[in-house]
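Exercise: predict the fold of this chain.
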Amino acid sequence: MSTRHVMIETRLGPVTIVAKDETITGLYFRHHARRPPQETFGPEADDSTDQLLNEAARQLRDYLAGRRRQFDLPLAAEGDAFQRAVWDIVKSIQCGDTTTYGRIAEQVGDRALAQQVGRAVGANPLCIFVPCHRVVGSTGALTGYAGGLKRKQALLEIEGPPAGDAGRLF
C-alpha cells in the first residue's frame, strides 16, 4: 500500500491524515506550522475503501464531536530518539489533563531541556492523535501549537476535564 493520504473536513477546518503501509504517520491542518510538502503524502486515497484511513477519520470525527476521549490506531511518527521520547510522554497525557514543557523536560532527564522539548512537541507529526495540545506553558498559559492557538484552545475545550475531576495541571 505504501504512503497515501486522505483529506477530510472537520470543525477545525480541513485535515490531512497520512498513512504508510498499516500505520498512521501524520495528521496536519492546511496551514500547519511544520506541514511537510504535499508530495510526501503519497496519492490521495478513498477513505471509503482504505480501511486504516477510514478508521482514523472516523475516530477523529468522533473525538471532535466529544464521543471519543482516546484513539486506538497504529501510529508511527518519524523523528529522532529525543523527539520520540518526548512524544511517548505526550501520548500518556490523559484527556482533560495538561502538563508543561518543563515537566516533560524533567521526565526526559533535565528541566533545562524545556526549549528542546518545545521544539520536539512542535515537530509532532501526529497532532491530536499524539495530543501535543495538552502541553502548556509553565503558568498554564497556552503557548505554541502547529495548528494555531485557536485550534489548541478548541481542542482543550472539546476535552474538558475528566469525569469527576476539575482537571489538573500535573
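Check your answer against the key: The longest strand covers residues 3-10.
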